[in-house]
Design goal:
Blueprint (H helix, E strand, L loop, with lengths): L1 E7 L4 H5 L12 H15 L5 E4 L3 H14 L3 E4 L16 H8 L13 H18 L4 E6 L1 H11 L14 E7 L2 E9 L1 H7 L1
Parallel strand pairs: 1-4, 2-3, 2-4
Antiparallel strand pairs: 1-5, 5-6
Helix pairs in contact: 2-3, 5-6
C-alpha cells in the first residue's frame, strides 16, 4: 500500500487578490509561510518517507518549510504537478476579465489548459512517484487546480467540487485495486492555529 499526501501550497498575494496564478512564479506571502509552518508542525507527528514539490516557487517554499521541520530532504521537483496553465487570464481578477473581455469571457478561447490535459499530466506524475516508492508514504506539494484534476482521474467519482484550501492535505492510497481517497482538503492544522 502506497500513501500520498497531496498538499496545496501556502497563500500568496495573488490568492488574496483573486488573481489567476497558473504558471506565474509567485512567492508565498507572510500568511503562506505561517500556513506552511502549521502543516509542517502537523506532519511532524506522522511518519513520511519522501517529499516532492511542483517546480513553482510557492510550492517549493512550502515544501522547504516542511522539509526543514520533518528532516526529510525534497526528493525532487516535478514539472508534471505544476499548476494548470492559465493562458490569457493569468494575473487577472474576475472584475478585470469582465472589463477586458465582457461578461461572456468564459465562452472565449483564453488558451487555458484543459481539464483533460491536467488530469493526464497530474495523474501520470503521481503514478510515476508512486511507482518509484511502492509501499512508502510520500508528500507532494502542488496547486489547487492541478490537484483537483489529478484526483478526478485517480479517484473517479470523488467529489472535488470544494476548492482545496491553502496548505490543505488530501490522502490518496494505492493498493492492488487502484486509488482511494482517505482524507480530502483537511486544514485542521490551520483551524487549530486560529483557536
Amino acid at each position: 500500500m502506497t500513501t500520498i499526501g497531496l498538499i496545496r501550497h501556502g497563500s500568496t498575494l495573488w490568492n488574496k487578490e483573486g488573481r489567476i496564478q497558473g504558471h506565474t512564479d509567485n512567492p508565498l506571502d507572510e500568511e503562506g509561510l505561517r500556513q506552511a509552518a502549521a502543516i509542517a508542525e502537523r506532519l511532524r507527528g506522522e511518519e513520511w518517507d519522501y517529499l516532492y514539490s511542483s517546480d513553482l516557487l510557492r510550492a517549493v517554499q512550502t515544501a522547504e518549510v516542511i522539509s526543514e521541520r520533518l528532516g526529510i530532504p525534497v526528493t525532487g521537483l516535478v514539472p508534471g504537478i505544476r499548476e494548470m496553465n492559465g493562458g490569457l487570464i493569468e494575473g487577472t481578477t474576475e472584475e478585470e476579465r469582465v472589463e477586458r473581455w465582457g461578461s461572456g469571457w468564459k465562452s472565449i478561447d483564453m488558451e487555458l489548459e484543459s481539464d483533460e490535459s491536467g488530469q493526464e499530466r497530474g495523474s501520470r506524475a503521481i503514478e510515476d512517484i508512486a511507482a518509484r516508492h511502492p509501499g512508502n508514504k510520500i508528500l507532494v506539494v502542488s496547486h489547487g487546480a492541478i490537484l483537483r484534476s489529478t484526483l478526478r482521474r485517480l479517484v473517479p467519482g470523488l467529489d472535488v467540487t470544494v476548492l482545496l484550501k491553502n496548505t490543505s492535505i488530501t490522502h490518496v492510497v494505492k493498493d492492488g485495486n487502484g486509488w482511494t481517497c482517505a482524507l480530502y482538503n483537511c486544514v485542521s492544522h490551520i483551524d487549530a492555529e486560529r483557536s
